[in-house]
């Protein structure tokens, strides 16, 4: 809250006399209308650890544990796409079709391996019969079993490759969404040539949880601790405050920005926080030094100085000039001019100040 700036005001007071004192004080002893007096509010100045806001810059990022970049396993050509940038997709949803000669090769290889496996299984059955009649050694039986196991492993590998691509016998396969989320990058269109060495064809991110990364400079490092609560704001939503806590602080300085990165993990059910959105991260910096503290609204700013009205007794008021050590939100920390226990007026102090000053 800002200081009160002096304005012309009229005080509903009766019979008053004033005198100027040294040390920036004016004492006014007067009889005050009881109704007005009843409306006054005061607080006692108290010693508090000085608390200041430390403001860090940062931005919204994907949670890398909830992001998938898709790259093809085989060479091919995109024949059709079924999604656009920004679309929400569900796991298993078909996103594109691909034509690939390598798929034909996989089908041929599968047929060949199936035949090899059938032959190996027949040979194993014959070997087991001969071994039972003592016509075949243990080593020869084991060799027959090994051939079956090898053929099964090769066939399993090919089936796995074909399962991943969702291929069919015509040499085409469908690309399906590996997770549910939003398409945040798209690098394909019908006719695009793809290969295992290509850049990712698209990226899907689950935005229901995001990271806020805050930049912590070396001079601020001693004030930032894991678990500290933070208030975050963004120009995209004026007046809105996002509340979180520091989950992790990197142990390595960013070589380009020369900062440590502090991570805040945020649930984002309404998808208000978008990747790359700039954020201001505010946290409380508590010092061990005790300072005289009063509400900011008690301050009166006049002639480039700060003043307060102090109540001394039932009908005695003093204007005191104060010097600020600092402030945080609604609290002002006083360097000089007040002491612990002083009764400071926080309601209608401007009226009293104006009357005292003009006497």
Automatic annotation (TrEMBL):
Residue ranges of domain Multidrug resistance protein MdtA-like C-terminal permuted SH3 in the record: 292-347
GO biological process entries: copper ion export; plasma membrane copper ion transport
Keyword Transport belongs to the record: yes
Superkingdom classification of source: Bacteria
Ranges where the CusB-like beta-barrel domain occurs: 209-285
Domain CzcB-like barrel-sandwich hybrid: 70-206
Organism: Apibacter muscae
InterPro entries assigned: Beta-barrel_RND_2, BSH_CzcB-like, MdtA-like_C, MFP_Cation_Efflux, RND_pump_MFP
Cellular component GO terms, alphabetical: cell envelope; membrane
Keyword Transport: yes
Coiled coil feature spans: 103-161
Keywords: Coiled coil, Transport
GO molecular function: transmembrane transporter activity
Sequence similarity: Belongs to the membrane fusion protein (MFP) (TC 8.A.1) family.
Name of the protein in question: Efflux RND transporter periplasmic adaptor subunit
């Amino acid at each position: 809250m800002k200081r009160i700036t002096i304005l012309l005001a009229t005080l509903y007071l009766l019979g008053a006399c004033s005198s100027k004192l040294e040390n920036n004080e004016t004492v006014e002893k007067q009889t005050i209308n009881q109704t007005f007096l009843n409306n006054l509010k005061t607080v006692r100045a108290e010693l508090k650890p000085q608390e200041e806001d430390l403001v860090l810059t940062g931005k919204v990022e994907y949670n890398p544990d909830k992001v998938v970049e898709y790259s093809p396993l085989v060479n091919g050509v995109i024949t059709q796409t079924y999604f656009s940038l920004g679309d929400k997709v569900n796991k298993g949803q078909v996103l594109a079709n691909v034509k690939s000669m390598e798929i034909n090769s996989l089908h041929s290889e599968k047929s060949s391996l199936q035949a090899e496996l059938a032959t190996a299984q027949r040979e194993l059955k014959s070997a087991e019969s001969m071994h039972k009649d003592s016509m075949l050694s243990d080593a020869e039986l084991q060799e027959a079993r090994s051939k079956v196991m090898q053929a099964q492993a090769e066939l399993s590998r090919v089936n796995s490759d074909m399962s991943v691509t969702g291929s069919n016998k015509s040499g085409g396969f469908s690309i399906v969404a590996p997770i549910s989320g939003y398409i945040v990058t798209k690098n394909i269109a019908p006719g695009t040539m793809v290969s295992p060495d290509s850049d990712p064809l698209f990226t899907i991110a689950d935005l229901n949880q995001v990271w806020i990364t805050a930049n912590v400079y070396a001079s601020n490092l001693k004030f930032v601790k894991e678990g500290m609560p933070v208030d975050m704001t963004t120009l995209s939503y004026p007046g809105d405050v996002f509340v979180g806590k520091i989950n992790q602080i990197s142990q390595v300085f960013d070589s380009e920005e020369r900062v440590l990165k502090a991570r805040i993990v945020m649930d984002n059910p309404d998808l208000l926080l978008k990747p790359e959105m700039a954020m201001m991260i505010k946290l409380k910096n508590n010092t061990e030094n005790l300072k005289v503290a009063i509400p900011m609204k008690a301050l009166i700013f006049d002639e480039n100085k700060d003043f307060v009205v102090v109540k001394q007794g039932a009908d005695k008021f003093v204007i005191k000039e104060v010097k600020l050590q600092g402030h945080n939100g609604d609290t002002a920390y006083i360097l000089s001019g007040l002491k612990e226990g002083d009764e400071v007026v926080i309601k209608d102090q401007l009226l009293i100040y104006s009357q005292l000053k003009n006497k």
